[in-house]
Amino acid sequence: MTTLEQRPVARAPLAAHQRGAAGRVAAAVSTPGGAIFVLAGLLLVATIVANPNFGDPGVIIRFLGRTAPIAIAAIGQYYVIVAGEFDLSMAAVISMQVVLAGNLIGDDVGRVLPVMALMLVLGAFIGLVNGLVTTLLQVPSFIVTLGMMLALSGLVAYLTGGAADGNPVDEFREIGRGGIQDVPVVDVIPYSLLIFLAIAVAASWLMRRPFGRSLIAAGDNPAAARFAGGSLVWLKTRAFILSSLSATVAGVLLVGYAGVHPSVGQGYEFSAITAVVLGGVLLGGGRGWVLSAAAGAFALELLFLFLTAVGVESTWRDTVQGLIIIAAVAIAGRAWTAGRRPRRAGTTPSTSRDEQPLPTPGTTTGDS
To answer: Compositional bias of type Low complexity: which residue ranges (predicted)?
Structure first.
């Protein structure tokens, strides 16, 4: 009997990458998440042209430090929105934490670390409540966080009587308003900017981990994520916890700039949502980059600076912010939908959200 010689089957070589570094950059910029970095650069140039004093490196670095709290809040809001939910309690969490710091720290330096630990624990607890009520009781997150916002706002009003309370010690306020001094060119690097950079790096790493990929999948197709064996309850609850912790950190930084007053942080929930959608994150979940959400915060503040520089009254701020939300949601939704359309002939796009496939990690979702 003759034994046939087994020969290895020749395989077709893998196709070479069709685009170089420039092509990949162009492709990223063409997405809603990438375009925000171009927009931020254009707004920076326009603001410098309208107000040449803003071109000083020291002025720019201080602007970045002042904007860091809203960028941190935007990162926290991103976790919730990309999972298909909302967190309207951020501003109330910030106000509560600010008042808490003023009342408990006072002039005692020894209380700074214990009170900060208490603030983080309390922030995590608020996020835990928001997440569990949303997921276990199936109450829409819009209603849950709206109720939490009203409850916390009422508590702050009761504790303060609607008036400013005493400021904590300068050592605590230095976290938000201090920085590394005598730095060449920029003179100072704000601590708030360094804290933001640390949080941004951690967020970028987290969104590349299984948690981040599962969070995006849950926002894109909850039914498929549930069938895949993931616990949506704990997954989305962690997103709410991260959102409240981000608001807590923003509150700590804002004490340095604004002191202790129940109005500190007012409107931050809408500013954070505006920054997230401006960064190309799709409301309803499943699409968007976390760093683009942070970039949206800087672009938003640059836009307001530019409008002020050209003589537009600050009373138009809310109007502009509302128009940005409407326009950004419409543009991002159409852009991401266009990116999902099948490219092969003979295939038809899905008509139902639940029929759409899960996103491929590292392509058009998650972090850049």
So the answer is: 340-351
Domain annotation covers residue 151: yes
Domain contains 51: no
For residue 331, how many C-alpha atoms fall within 13 Å in the half-sphere facing its CB?
16
Question: Among the ranges 10-24, 253-267, 295-309, which has the highest mean pLDDT value?
Answer: 295-309
> What is the number of domains present in the chain?
1
Q: What is the dihedral of CA 74, 78, 80, 83, to 10 degrees?
A: 170
Which range of residues forms the domain containing residue 88?
58-333
pLDDT at 366: 58
Report the relative pairing of strands 187-190 and 288-289 from DSSP bridges: unpaired
Q: Are 56 and 186 in contact (CB under 8 A)?
A: no
Write the CATH number for 312.
1.10.3470
What is the Cα–Cα distance from 65 to 198, expressed in whole angstroms? Answer: 13
Residue 244 included in any domain: yes
pLDDT at 55 over 80: yes
In a domain, 368, yes or no: no
196 compared with 222, residue with greater pLDDT: 196
Query: Among candidates 186, 179, 205, 197, which has minimal Cα distance to 295?
Result: 197
